[in-house]
Amino acid sequence: MTRQVTRQLLPADDMARLIALRRKLHMAPDLSGQETATAAQLLEFLHLTKPARVVPGLGGTGLALVYDSGRAGPRVMFRAELDALPIVEQTALDHASRVTGAAHLCGHDGHMAILAGLGLWIARNPPGSGQVVLLFQPAEETGAGARAVLADPQFDALRPDWAFALHNMPGLGLGHVAVAPGPASCASVGLRVRLTGREAHAAQPETGRSPAPVLAAIMDLLAPYMTPGPMGPHFGLATLCHMSLGQPAFGIAPASAEAWITLRGYDDAVLADLEARLCAGIAAAATGVRCDITRHDAFHASVNDPAAAEIVQAVQARLDLPTARFTFPMRPSEDFGAFSQVTRMALVFLGAGEAQPALHDPAYDFPDPLIAPGIALFAGITEQLLGV
Ligand SMILES: [Zn+2]
Ligand SMILES: [Zn+2]
């Protein structure tokens, strides 16, 4: 029999501990792939919840905690991200980052506090069947972490039947929920184009091989995709992030150039098509110079399973959490998309307030009032799938 989840999930002193944990994590951010101290802090916090199994070093610096009912049933995974961003925080908060050049400006500190809160809740309300896995995943911001977790042999024993993650979303009403079946976040990839020709005297450029015309051709190829159109099944976007050519000297015709381009698409297929067409165009334009294109920071689209999205919607309705107006998928990519490849999953957006600075903005700080509804959503999903 499923018990009704209320918003007062945890005693006030637990909520105070979670807010203190969130702020402590905020003060001591770790960059992608270096989250050892953050993972250790979470393990220390959750030690008393007595997980059946602790899996440290997952996918490098990740951490998984397994709570086992001892009875057969599905394995349900909830994910939070461990990493912060290489940006200087510009807030005057008491709990502002103490690490120069690193800050939790995507709210992953809040997502971790929500998952820690779920751990406290599970300790008081053990699942009636199956297992719950709390996954603290490394390196989300670079797109490397989810894939590293999935490739880790330790993941085989953690492979979930269902996986859920939430991301706070500035611009949506505080505590409003957006979840839908199908694509939840776009696919993306970074292309680094390296062009190598031959230097020459600036007075005799025809004796060298300048990559400048190829850069110009790249600009032309990108132009139709540089202004985003409306979101839809054919949505594609190219962002020219960086370009360089030669060296700052008036006497030299250049030999080398680079272009860094981020491509984005409605889903993996749209992105693959855009990438193939662009790479073919660049290769065709690069006559007389060497052209090397490498792929970086590749993110799958996050595609919500219809049944998983329906479960979240049912819990949202039970909790009476308002629905946000949201156009799916969101343009930024999320490496939780890698889990779409292996399990039924849903990525849920939780409004962080209309006036909240955007994600990755130097003035952003995760709103603590989201911790309670975040825990309530995940606890409700646990009840729905595993009973208590
Ligand atoms: Zn981010
Ligand atoms: Zn994020």
The total of helices stands at: 9
Instruction: Label the CATH architecture of the largest domain.
Output: 3-Layer(aba) Sandwich
Helix content: 25-40%
Shape: elongated
| Topology order in helix (H) and strand (E) letters | HHEEEHEHEEEEEHEEEHEEHHEH
| Spatial strand sequence of the major β-sheet | 1-2-4-3-5-15-6
Cα end-to-end separation: 8 Å
Rounded radius of gyration (Å): 23 Å
Q: Which spans have pLDDT < 50 for at least 5 consecutive residues?
A: 1-7
- Helix vs. strand class: alpha+beta
According to CATH, the fold-level topology of the largest domain is Aminopeptidase
The mean pLDDT is 96
Portion of residues in beta strands equals 15-25%
Give me the count of strands.
Answer: 15
CATH-defined superfamily of the largest domain: Zn peptidases
Quick one: biggest sheet?
7 strands, mixed
In CATH, what is the class of the largest domain?
Alpha Beta
For the record, the count of structural domains works out to 2
Ligands: zinc ion
